[in-house]
Automatic annotation (TrEMBL):
The keyword Cell membrane does not apply. Residues 24-43 are annotated as: Disordered. It comes from the Eukaryota. It catalyses: L-lysyl(4)-[histone H3] + S-adenosyl-L-methionine = N(6)-methyl-L-lysyl(4)-[histone H3] + S-adenosyl-L-homocysteine + H(+). Residues 168-276 form the PHD-type domain. Keywords: Chromatin regulator, Metal-binding, Methyltransferase, Nucleus, Repeat, S-adenosyl-L-methionine, Transcription, Transcription regulation, Transferase, Zinc, Zinc-finger. Pfam families: FYRN, zf-HC5HC2H_2. Its main location: nucleus. One of its GO terms (biological process) is methylation. This is [histone H3]-lysine(4) N-methyltransferase. The keyword Transferase applies.
Length: 400
């Protein structure tokens, strides 16, 4: 009889014919096993194994009816994992079905469970959306800003702020209105009451020089001379920037000198087109922006006196939050009672001041201050003008 080889825990155990005879009592009732196609091996019954395992109780499997066994087939070569599903088993061989399902990707930082994608139901049709842009033939002129503003104004969909009022201040030198370009005439500086000059127009005048503190000296002197000088470029009065070449009488406005391509130098000198050197020069100045603090030096006491002495004025004089309206007057018989050791109290004086409200902690209102006469003595009147309330009038015999 042939030996039978069993494999258990990677250990081979050979059972000889003696073991086969021990279990032969059940052969009559149990059919015999089919013959194994493996090669016959010589019996080996006297091997001892120390595998530290318990004794195996082996039972013979029921033997099936003997049938003609098919011819031995060559060993099966298993394909790789990705080709396992494509292998078709033969009818008589063991059939193995492998289904590969895609693994769902874990979504981090999400409390929801991963759900499988929705099914595509049978008969569902997918539609594609395409965009087609048609460009008309011919020249297309885009609308300008004014046309867009007019269109939005008709629709009424936007809130447009009030237009900025036009700046009617005029430079006494070049006669141009408003502030100029930074790299040009620059901003306007106040010279006197309603008298303005551009910074560079005054700075590049021949008589004017700048102090270390930024004060422009002799601006009024240059202005008086410019009223009699005519510009060589525009033939208008007010030219004060002359050519630095000796015995050259060409004189320009600052803006006209730039247009005439005069050459300016860093030492505050200028040469007309007839006397400037050819090509570039190391000391040539091509950028005229002034970002430092510059102001016109003037006598403020004399300026205030000239404002007070004027009768009918079309201008408002303001110092901080105090707006000056009228200076008033004093008669000879009032001189004794309408003054103190520090101030005069002219009758008819009127001024207004913007100050904190007496009713609200975070609001300002207008206080109209005036001086009147009562029984030969000054009467100080303060009228509180506040929106939403009636005017409150306060009077007393002293300014305090």
């Amino acid at each position: 009889m042939k030996d039978i080889v069993f494999c258990s825990n990677n250990c081979f155990v050979l059972y000889s014919a003696a073991v086969q005879a021990k279990n032969s009592e059940n052969k009559e009732s149990v059919p015999s096993l089919p013959q194994s196609p493996m090669k016959e091996r010589p019996p080996k019954a006297f091997h001892q194994y120390s595998n530290n395992i318990s004794t195996l109780d082996v039972h013979c499997l029921p033997q099936l009816q003997e049938k003609a066994s098919p011819p031995s087939s060559p060993p099966i070569m298993f394909p790789p994992a990705f080709e396992a599903a494509k292998v078709e088993a033969k009818p008589d061989e063991l059939k193995v079905t492998v289904k590969l399902k895609p693994r769902l990707k874990a979504i981090h930082s999400s409390l929801e469970d991963c759900r499988p994608p929705s099914k595509k139901w049978k008969g569902m049709k997918w539609k594609k959306w395409s965009i087609q842009i048609v460009i008309p033939k011919g020249s297309f002129k885009p609308p300008c800003d004014d046309e867009i503003d007019e269109f939005l104004k008709k629709l009424g969909t936007t809130l447009k702020p009030d237009p900025v009022p036009k700046d009617y201040r005029k430079c006494c030198f070049c006669h141009e209105e408003g502030d100029g370009l930074t790299d040009g005439p620059a901003r306007l500086l106040n010279l006197d009451l309603d008298l303005w000059v551009h910074l560079n127009c005054a700075l590049w005048s021949t008589e004017v020089y700048e102090t270390q503190a930024g004060a422009l000296i002799n601006v009024e002197l240059a202005l008086r001379r410019g009223l009699q000088m005519k510009c060589m470029f525009c033939h208008k009065m007010g030219a004060t920037s002359g050519c630095h070449r000796l015995r050259c009488t060409n004189i320009y406005h600052f803006t006209c000198a730039i247009k005439a391509q005069c050459m300016f130098f860093k030492d505050k000198t200028m040469l007309c087109p007839m006397h400037k050197p050819k090509g570039t020069h190391e000391q040539e100045l091509s950028y005229f922006a002034v970002f430092r603090r510059v102001y016109v030096q003037r006598d403020e006491v004399r300026q205030i006196a000239s404002i007070v002495q004027r009768g009918e004025r079309d201008h408002t004089f303001r110092v901080g939050s105090l707006i000056f309206h009228a200076v008033g007057q004093l008669l000879p018989q009032q001189m004794q009672a309408f003054h103190s050791s520090k101030a005069l109290f002219p009758v008819g004086y009127e001024a207004s001041r913007l100050y904190w409200s007496m009713r609200y902690a975070n609001r300002r209102c207008r206080y109209l201050c005036s001086i009147e006469e009562k029984d030969g003595l000054p009467l100080f009147v303060i009228k509180v003008v506040e929106q939403g309330h009636e005017d409150l009038v306060l009077t007393d015999t002293t300014p305090k």
